[in-house]
Amino acid sequence: MLPWGEIYKGILCVHGGWLYKGAQVMSCDLYKSYVKRGPFNMLRKGGGKGRPALIEWRTIQPKYRKQIIERYGDPEKLTAQNGLTKHLELDTKAQAFFRDYEYDGDKGLTEETIAEYTANVSIYNAVIDYVATRRSYRQKLGKSRTYDIWDEASRLISQLDTKEWPHSLPSSMRRLKPGIKKYKEMGYQALIHANFGNKNSEKVSNDAKAGKITEHYYGFRVYKSNYTPSYNEKITKLKFGQSAANARSASVVFHKRTTVKARGSVKRYASAAQDSPPLRENKLGFRLWFVCVAIQDLGQAALVSGKVPPAKEKDGE
Fold first, then answer.
1. 297, exposed or middle or buried, with CB in 10 Å at 0-12, 13-18, 19+?
2. With 0-12 CB in 10 A as exposed, 13-18 as middle and 19+ as buried, what is 71?
3. Percent of the chain residues topping a pLDDT of 70
4. pLDDT (average), residues 200-205
5. Structure pTM?
6. ∠ at Cα 236 (234, 237), nearest 5°?
7. What count of Cα atoms within 13 Å lies in the side-chain half-sphere of residue 217?
8. Chain segment 138-149, per-residue pLDDT in tens
């Protein structure tokens, strides 16, 4: 925080009284005129000691801003990170995701890449909060334009300490927004480069022989089959399409906290009483389609069909 200004609701402000008392770049009468008739935007009225009036920095005329910068420094640079860093915190869930991520069988990401991707996600989260806060406040002021908010966010990112936040995000607003959009749609997976097994940006094709749909989905492989897994007599899972004598069918169980479920269409079935003379009753039923996908490779199990040994015959029977 500056001694003569501060960030208020994400907006850089200068203390009103300081403009004519401290900096003395204008008279008190001019200050009151600018507040009443413009162009000053007063975001908060003064309320006694410790609560000065706040004037939005960008609404102060360029000639006054130039004088202040020459004498006291550029407040945008002096408070550059304040508007973003208060939203910025390490995303430990993202860090764990990237640390556990595997591709091409058993390869993992390097520590450098994990740190980079975690920093990128953490900054994305901060920017999303920052933009939402600024947009909400500007809407209350009757201002709908948000282009400059993204410009500010991009500028703040470029001024972050890369030793503390080793990110690889662009400083251009035009490149930043598509990245955040992709992150909102895909989650952590959006950060992973195609070289590390991320095929989401490519056309997905089915491998009928192996049953594979895509290399990775949220960090683990996804396979397609019309049948549940089969196991041999030693309770070892058979490969996709493999058959064996006395194979045992199974059901796959996922813990509900590691899955997501999306409801699909509903079909209605009905039969009228006149179509059932013996019972003379109407029947109504529904079928609901849905998809359930695991999001974490934890808490899984398979229920394998067992065999009941035949009862031994007793002597004399």
1. middle
2. exposed
3. 74
4. 42
5. 0.43
6. 145
7. 13
8. 666 565 565 577
